[in-house]
Structure formats: structure tokens, C-alpha cells
User: What shape does this take?
Amino acid sequence: MTRRTTLIRVPRTVTAALAVLTLTVGWPESARASPQPAHAQHSAESISAISRISRVEPDGRLPAGWRITGTGAGQRLVWTSPDPVPMGDARVEFYAGDRLLGRPVATQDRRTFRLRLDGARIGPASGLKALAGGRRLDASDARQAPDARRATEAARPTAPAPANPVDPGVPGKYRTVSGEYALKSVRLPGFSAPVEMRAAVVSPVGAPGRRPLALFLHGRHYTCFDAKGDQGISWPCEAGTRPVPSHRGYLRNQKLLASQGYVTVSISANGINGQDDAADDGGAQARSSLVRLHLARWADWAAHRSGAPAAVRAAPPADMSRVLLVGHSRGGEGVNRAALDSLSRPPADQDGYRGPVRWRIRGTVLIGPTVFGQNPVPDVPSMTILPGCDGDVSDLQGQIYVDGTRGVSRGAALHSAVYIVGANHNFFNSEWTPGQAQAPADDDFWDGDTPDPVCTPGRKARLTAASQQAAGATYTAAAARLFVAGDDRVRPLLDGSDRRAPSAGPARVLTHAVGGKRTPVLLPDTSTSVTGGRVCAQVDPDPGRSCLPPEGSAVSPHFAMWETAREPGRYAVAMRWSKPGGAVRIRPARPVSVAGADALALRVIVPPNTTGTRLDIALTDTSGRRATLGHARIDGLPGSDRTASYWGREIRVPLSAAVRSKVDLKHVKSLELTPGSGSGQAWLVDAWGWSPGTPAVRAASLPRVDIGHLKVEEGDSGVRTYRVPVTVSGRGSGQVRLFVTEPGKDEPGHRTVTVRPGGNAIDLPVEVRGNDRYGYDITHRVFVKAVRGAVVGSHLGGVTVQNDDPMPTIEVKPVADQVTEGQSLRWKVSLSAVADVDVDSAGFAIQPVGRGTELSTPDVDGPWLRETFGESPDPARPLSEVAEPSFLPAVVPAGKLSAEVSVPTVRDALKEPEESLRMQLMTYDDSWEPQEGPVFMGTVRDAS
Assistant: This one.
């Protein structure tokens, strides 16, 4: 099956906020959206006029670009962008205030996004938002209005960090050889078209023995392009177009690693990019399957060289016990899932690889990654690159690959975050970089009409493409050297030790980490006692509870949202002071130990562009002995209203002062932070006992949870019980946090459950009552996150109960179609049967009358006109021209057989000729196709 699309040319002036392309993640549309609106759209500018259709609360007009279309089960909430939306990795999400409505599907023109409502309550019009990667897409003021942080140049950095003695960016001693292979395409579950098995290989020449293998996976980008510079997302590519060679975009990284003795392979995933809009998880499982299918081939070729492609035979045999996975954007989430699936198998019906695991993943490198599932692998070391000027995954949600591992498993695996100031999303891949790419390419960061102090090209903080790629290659090589080669000398580049790699050039690179030889001291939660500050919620719509204002431009990668507006289990400590000296005392629920550690390490956030925040740090033991460990100065990152710059800086103070003061480091009661600067703010993310070194990592045997998605028909009678598909595999027991969303409720219920293979701790029955009345599909959503001693694969699932009853037929009869001005024209809309939901499958297209005088805007009630069309009576114009199109919706409420549609007229003192209204009945089927009905005329006589 060939998936076809329209090639488009995307203007270079498109906003970074729009530098994304949606896919359906969670609940895909049952049918693919058509390229253009399939029928005349309702004029849904007025919420009052459509409140019964969409359950929008009547408080004004829908925002510009938003409308309601379709009928019945086919009803959609639609947002249209003023510009085509380029391909990207962050997914578009519709929100009502802080409540996630769902993830829409894009039409092929890449301007329109549609979300099936299924009867969902939308709420106030002002709360409607389209977001991607945490960035607002649908408000012009959100894209253009400067805030205080944009008014001046970004804060200047302090002196460069000391150079690390070992620089992993220096090329090695081996020459390199390059080649490609293309194998037979493969079938992956849920994808109709086969996916390519194509890769670029770069390997060392003359390297002895078996060599470690580094596999690269690109992210979600256009799949095809033509000679005119048009791009699309067909798969396979249509005639006259060719694939975008995204897999060739990491040759600089590959050549550096190959010169150091690594065999490298970069695989193509266009076939997934062209189809993952139908995947609940955004294609993470499919990408994992593709990665492991390639690894399986490399395991075969390591054992049987004669059957390998020429590019592989030119390389030394791969050592499959030493594998590094590198993923960019959605490729990052894909290799994270591949690492998990290499430790514990996914459900067979979801997986495209069924063979044995004949490799060992030593670490992952995640470049500007998505993390839709927020399910990082705790026992595989990782390095996550956070591009400070990312215009695609702009909330830098990849931070969760670090934070989300805390407390889940043994904690020996190092998880590092590498924040590169001035780097964008695309330029890590040369095939997504203007001037380097074969296909059209763009800078994903967009600064609008107001230059950005950090990220506008040419600003001091903004990196050139070459500098960004040098930094990316250097730090990828650092991760390889630490995770695969075990060279602890490069660890200071990754773990917050404030060292730099000269090969990264002018790039300002900041790091912090969890795991390794750290021991937990403080991970704030609701049991933490704080005086002088407060425990704040990282994800909460309540400004009194949240760490940062829920509405506004302050964005922290640590506080990236997930599936719910309020998420328990994620907290920090917020501090605010107006003068120095006011201590913030933080006391965990139980005394903690830092015995044996060299230093106390804290991750502390301060506002962007601030300098000189000073904190005195002290510990007190259970007997009351107290010691001031030292002082720390913290500067904020360069930032603007377009960057996610509220990011934790790692600070360390030695514990020697506590030892001298005879503080009992095995029984520490409290941590004290005392501001030394005049006024300011800070947020403590966590605290650890720190020691140098990188411990050996041994994966724990953990239970794994996967949620499935079941679709059932409601039936005509009786009651049946279905259960949400839940698979618990692996070994041992652990805890996960389970969220269950019931239809009609704004917030999901949640609970923490203990899971073990063979247990039934997650037993979620769904009762389905059959009937013969038309209604909406109903979805019971379930999502899950690891808490302790467990891992999660497929985090999202549930049961969808599909309506299987036909929509009632509609009949219209005039009630009062000849009236005197001041009276209402009225028609009765009747159904052939009662429905369980509002039936809005009929409406009237107002047409020019042809002959005579047409009823105009001053002739009808002004409030009715505003509520129905969102328009003012002035200037006077015929009703057929009041909107495009002028559509009068007709709604029969649930449980009723009929309703009236009326047009209220007003009486005036003017002597006028007889005026007419011409309307054609329009009904719509479940495929959004319009069905033209009879024409109805209304006549209004002059009252004078």
C-alpha cells in the first residue's frame, strides 16, 4: 500500500513554534483526514450557537483559526495555521486551559489540524490552545510579543570552564571507509507499507579484532522531495520524488568515532516517519523494532562475514557486546525503547523483532529527544543533549531521561544532561541543515519580527551549524568513551564537574547528572518539610502549588508535562527572598546518609540571565551538630521567552567541613540553604552525596508493564465487560503510578500499585451496555509511569467502545416561514429516532435569493447574529455574505425527537419591500461528505 500526500514548499519564515508536524499519539483518528475540508464548514465563530454541538461554554467567540466541523461521531475541533506547518518531531496537542483534549491529525496541506471530539467538553473559548513541545502555536501574540527577558542581550557567560585533560573530540589514529547497504524491506505491526532496511556504514581501516558498534537513528523529518524543492511525507515516495537521506546526516559523528576504532552505522527510518501518525506511541516501538532488526543482522554478519554486504565486509567484525545507540529527536525515544526491549521483551503483538537478543547496549546518546512516554531506561547509561535554541522539541522534554530515572532502579547507571547554549534542533543532522543538505532544509528556530537575544543567527550565544556539529560529535564521542570504552577520564565532561572539551570549539556546554557513584540525599516530595520556602509541584495548573506560573513564558525542562495537567510524584523546593540571610531549611521525612561521599551535589535552578546568586550550604545531624559546607555562586543560563532556560545547574561543596565539625554524616537531619545575595529566586531539584568514578552497571531484573488498546462495538443489547489489555512481564515486583481517565471527567484518577508478573494488580474492567440508539465512540484512557523497581514499555492504552448504530435520518418542515418583521422565522427539525447524543448532522447553508430583496444583517436580532456567526450587524450586508460560508447549524438535543431552528427578525420604522431568506438543507455523513437537501424559503413582510 502506498501512502500518498501532497508535496508542499514550506516558507523559511515559518515560526519555530510551527516547526512541527502533528501525528496522532494516544488515540488516532479512525480514518485519515482528507487534504482539504470535505464539506462546507460550520461557521463556528460563535460559541453560543454551537454550544450544544461541542459543549463549549458560552462565553464568547472561538479564537481566530479555530472552528467546529462535522457531525455526530465525525465532529472535529479544527485549528488552521496561517502558514504550512513543517515536518518535525514534537507533536501538536489541543488543550482547553490546562486540560489535554487530545492530539490532532494534520491534513495534507499541513495547515489544518483536526481532533475528533467524541462529545468531549471543551470549556471556555479563551482556554483553547494548540501546543507543540510546550510552545504555543495558535496565538500571534505568543509568537511575537516580547517579554522582559527579550529586551536586552542575553547574560554574558562567566570565564570558560577548565579544559578536560582528555579531549574525546580529537580524531583517532585510523583512516575510515564509508559505504551503504540496502536490504529487503520489513513489515512492522500497525504499519501498512513495508519499512526500508537501509544504512550508511563508516568504519576504521586496519583496526584489529572485534570493534564496538555505534548505531545512529535519525528523527522525524520529511520523507521525500523533488527537483523543485517540494517536500512531503509519502511512503513509498511517489513517482518523480526521492527519499530524503536523513540517515546520512551524522557522517561527521560517524567518521570521528570510526577514526577512534568504532564501527558505525546510521539507519534510515523514512518508512516509519511516513506512517507513525497512526501509532499510539508516535512510532517508538516501531523504531525500536527497526533498530533491533539491524542489530540482529550485524550479529549475523559478525558470525558469518561472507554473507554480509560489501560495506559491512569492509569493516572489522562488530563486537556485539559493546553497542552504543545514538538517537536524534524521535530517534532518541526509539533507541531508548530499543535499549529497554533488549533487556525485557515487549508484547509480541506490538513488536517487529521476534528473535533472540545477541547484543548488549552499553549506553545511549539522545540528541534533542522526545519522551512522550516519559519511560527512560534506568539501568542503561545515557547522555541527553539539550539544544538551548531548539525550535522543535522546544520544551527540552528530554530532560526526563535524566530526572525520570531517579529512584526507579539501583541508580548505578550514569544519566547525564548536556545543555548546549545556542544549538538548534536540526543542525545536528547535516541533511537537515541549509547549505549541507541534499533536500531543502531550514533553521528550526524562528524569532519573528523581534530578534531573539540568544537564538537569532548572528547573536553571540547562537552557534553556527559547523560549531554545533563539532560540539555534538565531541560529546557523542565522550559518551562512547565513557559508556563503551570505560574511560573514566572523560566523565568530568558529562557529570557536572565543570570541564570543557576543546574540540567542542566555541560552544558553551553545561552538564549535570544523576546516578553513577551518587547516593540520594533529597528528592523532594510531599513528606519533605520546608521552612523559609515551599515544596512546589512541577506539573500543576494551580499557581499556588506549581513551581513556575502555569501560564507564561517561564519554561523548565525539568517540569515538562506528560499526559495529565496535574501529576503527583514530581516536586521541587521553591525559594524566594528579598534580602540576604533568610535560611531555607529542608528536612526529609527520615534522616539520610552521606557517609563515604566526597561532596554534596545539588541541582539548583535560577532564573535565566541572572548572575551572582549566592547560597551558603549547611548540614545538621540528628543530634543538632551543624556545619556550613561552603558557598556557591550560580548564574542563570542565557534565555528568552522562546527558550526553556530554567535548568538546574550542578553545584558541589566538599563534606570536609562537616567531618571537621564531627557532624554525623550517617544521620543527616536537614539541609540548609541561606541566600547571600540581595533578592532572588531559586528552585532545588534534588541533592546527592557525590564521589568520583563510574561504577559498573548491572541491570536489575525488573517487572515490565505494557498497556494495550482494545476497540469493541457496543452491541444492541445486554451488558458485557471488557478489560484494558495490560501485560506484566519480567521478574520481581515494583511500583507504578496508574492513571485512569473516565469519559466526562476533567482529571484522571490515579493510584500507586505494586505489580509482578502473573499478578492482577492492574485489573481495569470496562462495562459496556448495548443499545440501538446512535451515540459517540467512548474511550476509557489508561496511562502508567514507573515509580520504583519497575519499567514501562507502552505507557498508554485503554478501551474504546465504538458506536455501531446508524445516525437517525432528518426531516425539516416549516413552522413559520412567512412572518411580519419583529417575528421569528421557524423550521422544525425532526429525527427518525431518539439518539443518546446531540444530533447535529443537519444545518442550513444560507444562499443568495436570486430575485427580490434578501434579508440583511440589520433586519435580524443583533445578539443572535453575534452568537450565531460572531459578527456585528454593521456594515449592513445580506445574510448569505455574513460569513464564509454562512451556515446555520441545527441541533436536536440528546433524548429528543425534534428541535426548532429560528431566525429572529427586528421591527423598524423604515418602509421596506418584502425580504426573503433562502436556505438549503445540508446533512453530512460519517465520512464528512455533504448531502444536499431541499431548499427552504422564508419571507418577512414590512410591519409599517
Observations:
- Residues 738 and 751 are 5 Å apart (CA to CA).
- The chain is about 10% helix and 30% strand.
